[in-house]
Amino acid sequence: MLKDITIGQYIARDSIIHALDARIKIIITTILIIALFTIDTFSGFGFFSAFILVVVLLSKISIKKVLKGLKPILILVLFTLFIHIFLTKGGQVLWSWKFISIESEGVYTGFFMVSRIFILILFTSLLTLTTSPLQLTDGIEYILSPLKRFGVPASELSMMMTIALRFIPTLLEEADKIMKAQQARGADFESGNLIQRAKSLIPLLVPLFISAFRRADDLALAMESRCYRGGEGRTRLHELEFRYYDFIALIIIVILAVAVSFY
Amino acid sequence: MSLIEINGVDFLYQNDNSDRPALQNINLQIEAGDFAVIIGSNGSGKSTLAKLLNVLLTPSKGEIFVSGLNTNNRDNTWKIRQKVGMVFQNPDNQLVASMVEDDVAFGPENLGVPSSEIRKRVDKALEMVGMAGFQKFAPHKLSGGQKQRVAIAGVIAMEPECIVLDEPTAMLDPQGRKEVMETVEYLNREKGITVVHITHFMEEAVDADQVIVMNQGKILHKGSPKSIFRLVEQLKDVNLDIPVAVEVAEYLRREKIEIPDILSIDELVDALC
Ligand SMILES: Nc1ncnc2c1ncn2[C@@H]1O[C@H](COP(=O)(O)OP(=O)(O)OP(=O)(O)O)[C@@H](O)[C@H]1O
Ligand SMILES: [Mg+2]
């Protein structure tokens, strides 16, 4: 069950989107997210959706896979939608019953927010779907590296992210296993009120944490025995390098973002 | 001088409350190109010894030399770690990256090898462990035996002279165990890499050049597999399982039946029929 979480898991393909430099992709995503927050019309969202569709087609990843990544946030999205529909007031009254009423303003904002969340998640998951975790962390390291002068441990941070990404599937698998083991002994994770459910997670989390710490110990030893001594003097299998089409992509995005924001 | 020389080494864990050091007066030589197997029951100090070989620990007393470099000298640490690679028991806890090739590249990257050279080393190392074509796989999609072979490739890519494997087969199914043992034997025989293999499966010791039996922090015996397997009673005393064929041969011998030194079922069958 837990294993099905696929938000932003890298899918290797041979496409121009994959081939773009990770740093450029991070910058582009940032620009697009900023642009997303400046627009306030549905036609703007429509434009962004079309843009996402084009990128997905170019990336050769199936649309189904991309949409599957949205599943885990569905609850959050529905929650947002309901909150707005029932609580945001203003405009025409569309429907009312006793003290509950739905007004047009609420419906509008609800769908507006939901579109924004979907597009936001799609942007970020497109980044992680098409960029290998290592390139991603290398990219972040590069972008953060000017801050090294102020004592920000950029290489170590990126190493931490690499390891975190590496261990997410392993830990999820393990959580799944522990859950099944506890269920086999009669543990119940699914019924009861919120507090009871939270309590029932303790026998899942404790063993998970203990094992994570043991793994961390082992991993530290393994890294040390493979000569890891911090970021200094490290080389890379895949050195990041800018190519001309990285800049072309960046320029296209900047123009698009500006156009959409001022449209 | 041997590739690895251990002279009068003691080791006591700082946080250990017991008075008995984890290792006591260890003297051992391992020649370049050898396949050495260390066996011993739980807590006998095998892992501690392994960690001393690659400077994850340094002796409390005595000295260890790896191709002439003293492990007590801090300046030698990184040189020795490059020469002596370590493979650990749990295949999940020693892979660093989310993609096989990035993981194999981790060691050479730390050594500062240029990127085109890393590419060559990674591909060669994966080929040597029979994992060519798995470059882009995620570690969690591999079987235990495959993960362990990737870990071995990660060490090979650093071009070490010696690999120390600390119970690499303990968590694997029989198929995975076979894959790993075949890989290690191939690397030793064909590529001339010295192997120190720690195990509690006695069968894995039959092809060794040298078998070292450890008990309670001391070396109990060392010698050829045949000479070690002769010591059926002593090995049983320290809770080690002897391969059935070896045990049967020993009992037959006791009944005054002429049996040459044998190590496997096949040899026993040949001797009897
Ligand atoms: N980090 C540590 N701190 C304190 N004592 C330790 C530590 N690691 C091991 N020991 C102790 O040192 C002794 C030798 O342990 P070691 O792990 O080397 O044995 P081993 O032969 O590898 O056993 P196993 O077959 O269980 O892996 C044991 O008595 C153990 O309790
Ligand atoms: Mg051990």
TrEMBL record, chain A:
* Source taxon at top rank: Bacteria
A Pfam family hit: CbiQ
Which compartments does it reside in?
Membrane
Q: Which GO terms describe its cellular component?
A: plasma membrane
Matching InterPro entries, A to Z? ABC/ECF_trnsptr_transmembrane, ECF_transporter_component
According to Swiss-Prot or TrEMBL, what is its membrane topology? Multi-pass membrane protein
| Ranges that cross the membrane | 20-39, 70-87, 107-129, 244-262
- Entries under CDD domains matching the protein: EcfT
Keywords of the record: Cell membrane, Membrane, Transmembrane, Transmembrane helix
Protein name from the UniProt record: Energy-coupling factor transport system permease protein
Write down the species.
Answer: Halanaerobium kushneri
Instruction: Show the taxonomic lineage.
Output: Bacteria, Bacillati, Bacillota, Clostridia, Halanaerobiales
Automatic annotation (TrEMBL), chain B:
Give the record's family classification: Belongs to the ABC transporter superfamily.
Which coarse location class applies to the principal site listed for this UniProt protein?
membrane
Which is one Gene Ontology cellular component term of this protein? ATP-binding cassette (ABC) transporter complex
Tell me the GO molecular function terms. ATP binding; ATP hydrolysis activity; ATPase-coupled transmembrane transporter activity
Q: Which residues form the ABC transporter domain?
A: 6-241
| A Pfam family | ABC_tran
Q: Which residues form the signal peptide?
A: none
- Source organism superkingdom: Bacteria
How does the protein's chain sit in the membrane according to the entry? Peripheral membrane protein
Q: Where would you find this protein in the cell?
A: Cell membrane
Q: What is this protein called?
A: Energy-coupling factor transport system ATP-binding protein
Q: Which organism is it from?
A: Halanaerobium kushneri
Q: Which PANTHER family match?
A: ENERGY-COUPLING FACTOR TRANSPORTER ATP-BINDING PROTEIN ECFA1, HEAVY METAL TRANSPORTER
Q: What InterPro entries has UniProt attached to this entry? A: AAA+_ATPase, ABC_transporter-like_ATP-bd, ABC_transporter-like_CS, ABC_transpr_CbiO/EcfA_su, ECF_ABC_transporter_ATP-bd, EcfA_1, P-loop_NTPase
